[in-house]
């Protein structure tokens, strides 16, 4: 791996994804972070935390369950950073609705966020 690897993290705007981004920034000097999530405001907060460690950070707001959006994001990441060295498919969604009472639309949204997104982003990179 290069001395300054490109690490792409989906779901980087909060929770585990934000923690992963901050850990890479703190532990791997010169890391180049491609932060991906739908919530651009929270994504900017994660980026600010990573910049304190002098990481090279770029934001790529994207709904990773949307095929066209993922293709556009992949082109933008590749144009900005070149090839991705580490892909962390962390994006996901949780809803506490009881499974057997969950509306079909919510089930479809969860599958799109938690499974389809992993497929689309993996395929793109």
Specify the number of helices.
4
Strand order of the largest sheet: 3-2-1-4
The percentage of residues in β strands lies in 15-25%
Outline, from the CA principal axes?
globular
Average pLDDT score: 96
Q: Care to count the β-strands?
A: 4
Q: Helical amount among residues, as a percent range?
A: 40-55%
Supply the helix-strand structural class. alpha/beta
The separation of the N and C termini measures 16 Å
In short:
With 125 residues, the protein is α/β, with parallel strands linked by helices.
Architecture blueprint of SSEs:
Layout: E1 6-10, H1 15-27, E2 32-37, H2 40-51, E3 56-61, H3 67-81, E4 86-88, H4 104-124
Helix pairs in contact: 1-2, 3-4
Describe this structure in words.
By secondary structure, the chain is of the alpha/beta class. Helix content is 49%, strand content 16%. The chain is built from four helices and four strands. The chain has a four-stranded parallel beta sheet, sandwiched between helices. Helix 1 runs parallel beside helix 2 and helix 3 runs parallel beside helix 4.
Spell out the key features of this protein.
single chain, 125 residues, alpha/beta, 4-stranded parallel β-sheet, 4 helices, 4 strands, 49% helix
């Amino acid at each position: 791996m290069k001395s300054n690897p490109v690490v792409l993290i989906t779901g980087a705007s909060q929770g585990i994804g934000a923690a992963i981004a901050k850990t890479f920034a703190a532990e791997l000097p010169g890391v180049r972070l491609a932060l991906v999530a739908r919530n651009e405001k929270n994504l900017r907060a994660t980026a600010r935390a990573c910049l304190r460690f002098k990481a090279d950070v770029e934001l790529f707001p994207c709904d990773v369950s949307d095929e066209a959006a993922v293709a556009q994001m992949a082109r933008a990441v590749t144009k900005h950073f070149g090839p991705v060295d580490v892909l962390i498919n962390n994006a996901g969604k949780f809803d506490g609705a009881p499974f057997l009472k969950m509306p079909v639309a919510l089930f479809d949204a969860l599958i799109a966020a938690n499974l389809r997104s992993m497929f689309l982003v993996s395929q793109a990179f």
